[in-house]
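Hello, quick one for you while I still have it in my head. A protein chain has come my way and I'm curious about its shape. Can you walk me through what the tokens say about the fold? No rush at all, and the record is pasted right below.
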Amino acid sequence: MSSTDMEVIVNNQKIGSKTEKMSSTHSEWIDVQSLLSFDEFPDHLKRRIRALKKLQFEKLEIDCELAKDVFDLEIKYAQRYAPILEKRRDIIDGKLEPNDNECVFTLDEDSEDSEDSEDSEDGHLSHEVKPKLSQREQNETKPSAGIPGFWLLAMRNNQQISSWIEEHDEPVLVHLMDIKVMRTNNPSKLTFEFFFGPNDYFTNKVLTKEYELDFRLDPENPWSLQEFLVLNRNGCQINWKKGKNVTQEIQKVKHSNRNHSSGTKVVDRISFFNFFKTPKLPTKVKNIDEETQEFLSEDWILAQEFFKAFIPNAVLYLTGDLYDDVDSSQSSSSHSEEEKSNSQGSDFEESGSQESVFETESDSESDSQTESNSE
């Protein structure tokens, strides 16, 4: 037998061995493919997958450390952001009128030039139009200071936030002057401050919401992909003026007895200002009912939207540079009831009351405290 024949035999043996291995692997894959759920996996595959989950858990623990380091770094950089955000507030409030140089922004100028070029034959604004524009500007009355309604207009263009805003909230939010978020350590906390100007609805100048955080995995649900736990959340008491509480409404009550006239009752209703209420929570997490859990989840989603996206970039939501597919021609109050129930808990409106979720006071106590505060 020649050396060439020997090589052919050896190669055929190698090919046959590889084919057998591929066939066995393929047959195992077909078996797995026929399974409907992980519970039906054979034990040797479950064993390997448990090893993968253990690695995943180690990865998530590192994620928690990373989140804590990022949180600490954000505290450091907050000092650099502070003067920028203070100047933003002063311009919005009208305390500061930006000069000509401060109003020149190259990116916006480029877009304006391109629009002007479309309206003129030679690509430039004609000399005949320029004097008319300047004359028109001179004839205009002196504009009001600042940017009225800045925060409400910007919030309308954020889908997550606008889904919380009802029509009866908007007259109150018009008076919103600034939103701040503060990060602190030991313990780790996020504190939101909503500053309001004088208004007909409440006497508070600032509304607050505080979250206490712990950077570790949730022992009840480690696969939630959250790098920290919300240990506590505390809202504030809003000192509503009499008859101005937008989180409540008066409903007529019909008596079954015809001899009695129909009366009225005060019930809670969906409102953006429910964000500032403190949820009543049981001592054990396992005892939290589904309705409360849903609200807590949506409440935290809203908080994250505020401090991660909206507060740092509010002007871009106002201008539409950041836009969440909210139809600007459609009022936020016209969102479907399904969207509302998803954002604040599906059972809230059906029950007609949120007392099972929030720490609330009776109407009479609230009104008496409001009157004493206003005096």
Notes: Residues 113-133, 326-357, 360-375 have pLDDT under 50 and may be disordered.
